[in-house]
Amino acid sequence: MTDFEQLIATLTQGRVEFVIVGGLAATAHGSARLTQDVDVVYARSPDNIDRLVNALGAVRPYLRGAPPGLPFEWKRETIQRGLNFTLTTTVGEWSSLDTPPCAWTFPG
Q: Of 1, 28, 38, 105, whose CB is crowded by the most CB atoms within 10 A?
């Protein structure tokens, strides 16, 4: 079960620039839709990627659905080489999108 509050607090306290999308965003706007993960769009600036690595590092992200023991390093280079990640953490499920499902982008 995902601890939504803890996962969002982890990102916020780490000063990560992100926007919540997907089912959690729909629920926040009154939808009855249930969700089991946090979907976010994150800014791809080098500084923000560093903040994302540091913030989520504390909750041990690992590729969701990957077999145990598969090599995976949550570091700047990993994020820079990929765009979208579906992860499991010690506080629940998390998905990140490099590009939002709309025309909006981060300023700058």
A: 38
